[in-house]
Amino acid sequence: MPETGVFESAEPIKYCIFGCGTNGYNIILELDKEHERVIVVDKDETRVRHLRDQKYDAYVRDITAPDMLVGLPPFEIAFVMTGDAAANLAAVLTIKKRYPLAQVIARAIDPVSAEKLTMSGADFVIYPQEVVARAAIHQVKKQHANRISQRLFTLLAGWDGTLGIVTHKNPDPDAIASAMALAEIARHANPKTLTTRIFYEGNIGHQENRTFVNLLDIKMEHLTPEVLQSCTYLALVDCPAPGANNDVPLQTRFNIVIDHHKDAKHLATPSSFVDIRPGIGATASILTQYLQELDIPVDKRVATALLYGIRTDTKEFKRNVTPADLGYAGFLLPLTDADLLDKIMSPSMSQETLDVMGKAIQYRKIQSGYLFSNVGFVMNRDALPQAADLLITLEGVNTALVYGITDTSIVISARNRDIRLHIGNALAEAFGEMGDAGGHPNMAAATLPLHYFGNVTNKDELLGIIIEPILQKFKNLVGLENEDKKNAL
User: Fold this and answer.
1) Closest CA to 107 of 26, 31, 3, 36
2) Residue 435 near residue 451 (C-beta atoms within 8 A)
3) What is the pLDDT of residues 172-227, one digit of tens each?
4) Mean pLDDT across the stretch 118-123?
């Protein structure tokens, strides 16, 4: 078993449930609410078949057998939940022998079996039986959070040199705040032999983001191949891997990867430390948890940055927000500089942003609840998501795509409030082969490189020529081509 936070497979399994009776199934349902990936092991073939019918990754195994882990994906946390005391004890011994660093939560039948399970290495024993699934999950998550935070701290404490922290290409407050917090953790873990630098590749174009960086006096540097090679260690925040929302070469090895996105196209390679949690609203929430678990004092600059990062990535706690995000925001609130936060959230709007929003309104086209708007050539690509945020509020619009063209790429920003559609998956499927595309159920983006067409002088004309066949892929995917045929009849 790899250490906590390090995975042998491209797509790691976090939870494995051994025994899927009433208690085991209740735990599955609780984990489902948090969109956690789970594998299930049970000796009952009929039960396993029913679980597979429900799209669960289930295996038939006798958990008392010494080879019961053969063929199973590696996992980090195990729930041993059968009603057979001897079977549970055998399973705990087998799991701990194969995966000594795995966390094991085991169900006890009586005080004697509870003692035996503890002596055999179970990290948490559920007894008496009144303990519910939610309480068990809360307990294991708390233990896991402490272990992974301590592992990061220990890793940083042992390094000597420069840690380069890379954000995504056009960093937003979540990415910037997460980089700040990681640098703060590194400073406390290793003040003598480790220095940190924060890098980004593109532009900080959104007026709120520029205000955020300026008022908090955040030192960020443009990333070049030379500075990348000069760093002893590399960390990636708010991106799942090289090439995902960044132009870092795919073969680049990162020592730390922390993110809340899941990108099927760019899976993180095994690294020194990987913590990717698609179920949480912001990467800043993950870094806040580290600070809490490590008991690191959070100064006003870092607290203000993290709170703002959580607020923006959850759209003021209205989008992709989880109870954990709300809890971390509550922890940060009394530590922030309220006046500074108010200034960051009330910047002046640039003339170009206003022009782009005006074009988006003027050139909008609506078809069966889908809005498409071409804003032409843009210098500041951060104006597109602001236009999409505005247009999605229009009556009768369920999904809005605002697109424009820069010197090097076609940029699409999408917003969605149709619960039947995952806009991030839709953009990834429609445009993933052409460039970088993906996102969340209700917000997503795509960047499609121009390649040879980048030398074309008239970018507005180029966009008008090539955009329709590109958008048609998305329309076909969501069924709009059927609407066109109906209208033509």
Assistant:
1) 26
2) no
3) 899 999 999 999 999 999 999 999 999 988 777 666 777 788 888 889 898 988 98
4) 92
Contact of 139 with 210, CB cutoff 8 Å: no
* Dihedral sign for Cα atoms in the order 258, 260, 266, 267: positive
| CB-count burial class (<10 Å; 0-12, 13-18, 19+) for 356 | buried
β-pair type (57-60, 370-377) = unpaired
pLDDT digits (tens, 9 = 90+) for 423-459: 999 999 999 889 888 888 888 999 999 987 777 888 8
Average pLDDT rounded to a whole number, residues 296-313: 92
Residues of the chain with CATH 3.10.310.30: 351-488
Residues of the chain with CATH 3.90.1640.10: 158-344
Strand partners, 197: 164
Q: Is 228 helix (H, G, I), strand (E, B) or coil?
A: helix
Segment among 30-39, 105-114, 419-428 with least mean pLDDT: 30-39
CATH superfamily of 13-131: NAD(P)-binding Rossmann-like Domain (3.40.50.720)
DSSP per residue, 369-432: TEEEEEEEE-S-TTHHHHHHHHHTTSTT-SEEEEEEE-SSEEEEEEEE--TT--HHHHHHHHHT
Would you identify the CATH topology of the domain 351-488? Diaminopimelate Epimerase; Chain A, domain 1 (3.10.310)
Q: Are 150 and 362 in contact (CB under 8 A)?
A: no
In degrees and rounded to multiples of 5, residue 147 shows phi and psi of: -65, -45
Largest CA distance in the chain: 79
In the chain, CATH 3.40.50.720 covers 13-131
The label of the residue with tokens 């990467």 reads 283
Q: Which long-range contacts (CB under 8 A, 24 or more apart) does 63-69 make?
A: 63/18, 63/19, 63/87, 63/88, 63/90, 63/91, 63/94, 64/90, 64/91, 66/94, 68/41, 68/94, 69/94, 69/95, 69/98
**Which CATH fold topology does 158-344 show?**
inorganic pyrophosphatase (n-terminal core) (3.90.1640)
pTM of the model: 0.62
The Cα 470–Cα 430 span in angstroms is 8
